Amino acid sequence: MADSGRMSYLDALAVLERRRRDEIVVTTMTCSRVWAYLSEHPELDVSFGGCMGKASSLGLGLALGRPGRRVWVLDGDGSLVMNLGSLVTIAQQAPANLLHVLLENGVYEVTGGQPVPGAGLADFATMARAAGYRSAYRFDTLAALEASVDEVLAAPGPTFVTLVVEEAGAAPRKAYPPTRQALATLRDRLAAA
Ligand SMILES: Cc1ncc(C[n+]2csc(CCOP(=O)(O)OP(=O)(O)O)c2C)c(N)n1
């Protein structure tokens, strides 16, 4: 763990990856490449990068369309601020199979590290709870996340979890397929399931 006490970006994602079974995982921005490096199920991963803030909306659609399959959205804080209204829409639709994870690094990392409005001030998990998510959590240390991650994954959804992380920085990354291709792969996989 680094001096700030915050989780490393890679460590936080690795906690989730170790527990991932057949969940669909929608990623965006910096997360997409780091998750692609960790993921053992790229056929169930969809990166949604160009539409800033819309990963959660895509995840909502997938969760509603596939109620029998768990969907994880790995969101950025800048992206969430761009589409805060999605919290209300997700809460109202209330898919029990949706987990919305916020990688709160405090910056627009992918565009050069500009500060996100509200960084260190806004509490997005509390916002999600207030919007009507059934479960909401916030973790700022790896130990706290490790201690509670099973509870988070078993909680009634929609579930929101903030992971206060360092910038991904030099974390290992891997390229991922374009969204259209990833969705075609996912469609084939789900049709065969
Ligand atoms: C509407 C819109 N405005 C600006 C951009 C440019 N842009 C792309 S990614 C990004 C920052 C993303 O920040 P965050 O969601 O926090 O992701 P991080 O890279 O930190 O993981 C910005 C400003 C965009 N894609 N769309």
Could you explain how this protein is built, in words?
The model has no long low-confidence stretch (mean pLDDT about 95). It contains eight helices and eight strands. Strands 2-1-3-4-8-7 form a six-stranded parallel β-sheet, with helices on both faces. The protein has a two-stranded antiparallel sheet with strand order 5-6. It is of the alpha/beta class and about 190 residues long. It has helices at about 10-20, 30-40, 55-65, 75-80, 85-95, 125-130, 140-155, 180-190; strands spanning about 25, 45, 70-75, 100-105, 105-110, 115, 135-140, 160-165. The chain is globular and about 45 Å long. The protein has a single domain, classed as Thiamin diphosphate (ThDP)-binding fold, Pyr/PP domains (Rossmann fold). The structure holds thiamine diphosphate (TPP).
Tally of contiguous helical segments: 8
Based on the coordinates given, report the CATH architecture. Answer: 3-Layer(aba) Sandwich
Note the beta-strand portion.
Answer: 15-25%
| Helix-strand makeup class | alpha/beta
